[in-house]
What does this fold into?
Amino acid sequence: MIRLRGHLICQSLEEAAAVRWHLADHIALSRAEPGCLSFDVTPTDDPMSFEVMESFRTREDFDAHQARTRASPWFEATRHILRDFRVEELRD
It folds into this structure.
């Protein structure tokens, strides 16, 4: 299993608004992907920061997710937002 945990850290209100505007579609599309076990992006107490937690069954599933998002409206709108993520491969 591959697990990603971390934060999106916005530098402006416009960036935070872009996250909020695109978030529902991004979550729905990600959760529908083959191999997605969980996918959550949630606001924190800081209105400029969002917690990201996702897990995928295999490295291939995770890589396919990354490729899909790079070609999505989500990434186009949020590409410049700081991502502080840690990716772990977990064994059974």
The longest strand covers residues 2-9. The mean pLDDT is 96.
